[in-house]
Each structure stands twice: as structure tokens, then as C-alpha cells.
Amino acid sequence: MSRVVFHAVKMEYERNKSLGVAPVIPHGPIIVADWHRCPDSKEYFTKIFQKKRRKTFGLLEAPAMPPQIHVDTVRYKIFLAGKSGVGKTALAARLGGSDIPNMHYETTGIETTAVFWPVKLKENGRVLFFKYLFWDCGENALRRFDHLLPSCKEQVDAILFLFSFTDHGSFEDLSNQISRVTDPSDRIVKLVVGTKFDLFMHTDVTEREIASFQETWGLPVFRVGGDVNGGLGEVAPLLNALAEHLWHQDCVAASCVPPSSQV
């Protein structure tokens, strides 16, 4: 968790304590699910669109809200891990609403993608902009240059482990990826994403295998396709899940609750 996010959450807990409100960890869903479909979200989501397409934000850019509307931004670093060819670059483009390259190419170094996502908290109706900075690094580059993986993991808040539904080997490699990239003591959010789910006629991974993996590792598995149509319906579940897990993780850290109570 970044210092900015930690202090923002910590200040909210301290403010609640000063008002005599006990700082408790939320139970159940923290954010409003499918808020992007609600009428009151329109003025926020329009700020991440430009000419009916998702707006591309640079590292120093942010959505411009009217002066009378104050929205805090919380920032998170997310590393995309997985075998070469599973679709890490395509997923980053998909989540950011950018065009996916027509031809596959190996990412030669580190590429970053900034994605803004408005979220409404259930407890108090507060709206936040979650800024996800996705770090994508080619698998061959990671193996060739020892300094890249530590750079990707430095102050990371979450890791998405990717596999392709059309490549059973990438699914079998998940356990190696998790063991290689993370340590049991890491207090970070870990999610698994299966790509190319839209190619169901060519899938090499069965639902039984997915269920067995989730039971063994205790990690949720999300499914995404390969096309970008500019809509939010297909990316919202993953972006909302990231917000849910990351905000809960920050609440746990800010209130000094043992990590065993995390979602």
C-alpha cells in the first residue's frame, strides 16, 4: 500500500475515533456493485471517457471534475504476471479501453498503463477515484534481467496472475508463477485472470480444473475475452474486485488488524 493511500485511510479511521465511532473492518461488500450502471455515477464515469471511448491517461494526468465536486484519488501499483503469450499486454489495454495490437509481440521491458475507475463506498456513500497503474513486463525479459522482477514488485499493492484458456500449459504454470513471484509473508492482493475466454470452442482448461485450483489456492479466478468494444460491462467485475480487495487491505493495515482477517 502506498503511503498516500495508507494515510488517507488512517486519517478516516482517526476521524471516526475522534467522533466516538469505533474503527471496525467492514464485513461483506465494501463498494457498490455495478455502480457504473446507476444514474448517480454518470457525472464521474463521463470523466474517463472521451468521444464515447475510454480516455487514455498519462502518468501525471487525472480526470477533471468540476470545482464543486471533490473526489479523492487513491493510487495502486499492480503487477501482471504470467507466461509469454497469455495476454498481459492485451489485458492492460482492455482494462484501459485502448486498442489491442493486432499481432502478438513480446514486451521487451516494462510497460505501464494508468487506469482510473470511480468507486462508491457502501458505508458512507463516498466516491473515490481508484488509479490503477498496471505494470507489464515480458517473461523473457524477466528471466534475462535480474533487476526487472524486483522493480515490478517494489511497493506493489496487487498481482494479477494470468493464464490463457487456450494454453493449458499456462494454467499448469500458475503455481510456479505464484511461488516465484510472491512469498507467503507478502501482504498484497492476489487475483487470477483467465484470458481468451471468448474462444470457448478452443479452451484447454475445464471448469472442474478452475474449481480445483480455487479450492487449493484460495484465489478467485476471473474470465476475460480478447476484444475491446469500449463498454464497461466486461471490465467492471475485475476492476471492482480489485477495488474491493485493495480497499479492504488498506482498512486492515490502517486499523492494525491481523492479516488473517483479510478477504
TrEMBL record:
What Gene3D superfamilies would the database entry show?
Answer: P-loop containing nucleotide triphosphate hydrolases
User: What PROSITE patterns does the database record attribute to this sequence?
Assistant: RAB (PS51419)
Broad class of where this protein is predominantly found:
cytoplasm
Q: Name one Pfam family in it.
A: Ras
Q: Which InterPro entries match?
A: P-loop_NTPase, RSG1, Small_GTPase
Subcellular localization is given as: Cytoplasm, Cytoskeleton, Cilium basal body
Q: Which family is this protein grouped under?
A: Belongs to the small GTPase superfamily. Rab family.
User: In its UniProt entry, what is this protein called?
Assistant: Ciliogenesis and planar polarity effector 2
Per the record, the gene is cplane2
